[in-house]
Design goal:
Helices cover 42% and strands 15% of the residues. With 472 residues, the protein is an alpha/beta fold. The strands form five sheets. Strands 7, 8, 9, 10, 11, 14, 15 and 16 form an eight-stranded mixed beta sheet that branches.
Length: 472
């Protein structure tokens, strides 16, 4: 049963049955419209009600009828229509009736859980509105303008070169989801908004700016292309893909490098406590960018020699500090030889590439690595559980932007086997990334440390997050 309530309309405003004036909403207070307009509207409504009520009165042979379940003489109709509580009963009898509906004509009312599901779908559908606000606020440096003291909307707008009313609306939305706080007619920082400051030790401003770059943001408009072809949506608009584009666009490349640097600080803090890097005489950081992870390792392992390997335009500005045991080598892991080392470190590299390209990268390392060496792979791992996980969101970003993918532990093991490597161990970290260890096939050498014949003592380790379920 579904209750349908029909509300009539007068010539100039909505009419509701519960109003004292039949045509207007001034319960008990008289009609503010007044004059001829009010008289015409209310008279019209009265005539309509009288006509409809007359049609529903059931004669019983005694000059009496029934309206809203009550018996009364026909001559009492005007009185009924001027008595509010009875008029309400007439209205409900005429216009608020329970009408049986079949499942084929009207959908059933959702249960509580279904209502929540409806809200959830709507929130996800519009979530990018909020994300875009975060991007723009980070780009404009609003968090930096707030600084350590609360600021008015007007002062922030003036410092950012934008309109105060528009800024207030954007910050109001962000405050509703826990970023910034509006108090005492001023904008204050909270824990979340401080991460958008450039001077925060774990600042995310550059990372947010990178994700908000028009060239990255617009790539998601081509998501359907990735679904239909399996190819990068970014590459549909920019031939050569993400890394070729960055190499040719210095401004975007600068933001990208800054984003990777800020992200690496969080990852470094999660990795260093869980693994002893000092056991290696030489560590080669493959596609290590500006070398933030490798240099952090060298600071905690002073006897270890580090080799930073990346493309020429990436490492061009990397200069070893005095006394730092760091060698910078430029090259391409698809075409050049890998430096010789005891351990090969790859942090968030393999997820950028499809399986075929990932096999080429790992096979090149396997080809040039000494028999005793280890491959240390730091990647986000997709869990087998169905709940939310950062890796599942990153997986879509990898599909759209570079054309790569996030993988499950089983998929990494299969990938390793195709490169004559074997997954040795998974190390849990307190960050959103895991640490993998793989060892190469090395038939006829030092025995079987993995329980299968034909494996040497070179290893590949995987660092795995224990808080990856957090949606960052």
């Amino acid at each position: 049963m579904v209750t349908w309530c029909f509300i009539g309309e007068s010539s100039h405003r909505e009419l509701r049955a519960e109003e004292s004036c039949i045509g207007h909403a001034n319960s008990g207070a008289g009609c503010s419209e007044g004059g001829l307009v009010c008289s015409l509207a209310c008279t019209t409504t009265l005539l309509v009600l009288m006509t409809l009520c007359s049609a529903f009165i059931e004669p019983n042979g005694t000059g009496r009828g029934t309206v809203a379940g009550q018996r009364f003489p026909r001559r009492m109709l005007p009185e009924l229509l001027t008595t509010k509580d009875k008029r309400m009963r007439i209205w409900n009898s005429l216009f608020c009736q329970e009408i049986p509906m079949t499942a084929s004509t009207v959908p059933s009312m959702p249960a509580a859980s279904q209502s929540f599901a409806n809200i959830q779908v709507m929130q996800l559908t519009t979530a990018y509105w909020t994300s875009r606000c975060v991007h723009v606020v980070a780009e404009l440096g609003v968090a930096d303008h707030i600084g350590d003291l609360p600021q008015s909307t007007e002062s922030l707008a003036k410092a950012s070169g934008i309109r105060p009313d528009a800024l207030h609306r954007v910050l109001r939305l962000l405050a509703s989801v826990g970023i910034f706080e509006w108090k005492d007619n001023a904008w204050h920082h909270n824990e979340a908004s401080r991460f958008l400051r450039s001077d925060h030790p774990a600042s995310l401003r550059d990372y947010v700016r990178m994700l908000g770059l028009p060239v990255f943001w617009s790539a998601f408009e081509e998501l359907e292309h990735s679904l239909r072809t399996g190819e990068s949506a970014f590459a549909k608009r920019h031939a050569g893909g993400v890394f070729t584009y960055l190499a040719e666009h210095s401004e975007e490349c600068h933001i990208f490098d800054a984003a990777m640097s800020s992200k690496s600080h969080r990852d470094i803090a999660a990795i260093l406590p869980v693994y002893d890097f000092s056991q290696f005489a030489t560590i080669s950081d493959i596609a290590g960018g500006r070398g933030h992870l490798l240099r952090a390792i060298l600071r905690t392992s002073p006897t270890t020699q580090g080799i930073l390997f990346d493309q020429p335009h990436v490492v061009a500005e990397v200069v070893p500090e005095r006394g730092e045991k760091l060698e910078v080598v430029s090259g391409d892991f698809f075409s050049d030889c890998m430096p010789r080392a005891d351990a090969y470190l790859l942090m968030n590299i393999i997820h950028d590439w499809r399986d075929a390209d990932s096999i080429k990268i790992l096979s090149a390392i396997r080809r040039d690595m000494p028999p005793h060496a280890r491959v240390l792979l730091i990647e986000t791992v997709v869990p087998s559980t169905p709940g939310p996980h950062l890796s599942k969101e990153l997986d879509i970003a990898m599909m759209v932007l570079p054309g790569g993918k996030e993988r499950t532990e089983e998929e990494y093991a299969e990938l390793a086997a195709k490169c004559f490597l074997r997954l040795k161990r998974v190390v849990e970290t307190m960050g959103p990334i895991p640490f993998w260890s793989w060892s190469p096939f090395n038939q006829g050498t030092k025995g079987d440390i993995l329980g299968a014949p034909g494996f040497g003592d070179s290893e590949l380790w995987l660092f795995k997050s224990v808080i990856g379920g957090l949606r960052l």
